[in-house]
Amino acid sequence: MSVRTIFAGSLRELATLYKPIELQLPRILARCDVGWGTRDPFFALEHGRRTAAALRAQLTVFEGAGHFLPEERPEDLAQDLRQFLQSGAPAFASK
User: What is the value of pTM for the model shown?
Assistant: First the structure.
């Protein structure tokens, strides 16, 4: 079975595969920053918004970027992470 076939099958079952993870996101108390590309071919920006909301996290939207932010926009991602880490917010969120 090819990687493409496995990946395509996973995408068809995305809601089922990721539901257990989605249910656990609110339990994560560590401060988070969610980065999302507006041209992600696998996950729409709405998924990023839901992920950030579940984590009580900052959402950084990368206009024109796809799914692989470290590869596509390494400088922008590094800058975002620097700002996030230097923001001085507590390391853990309250429930």
Answer: 0.77
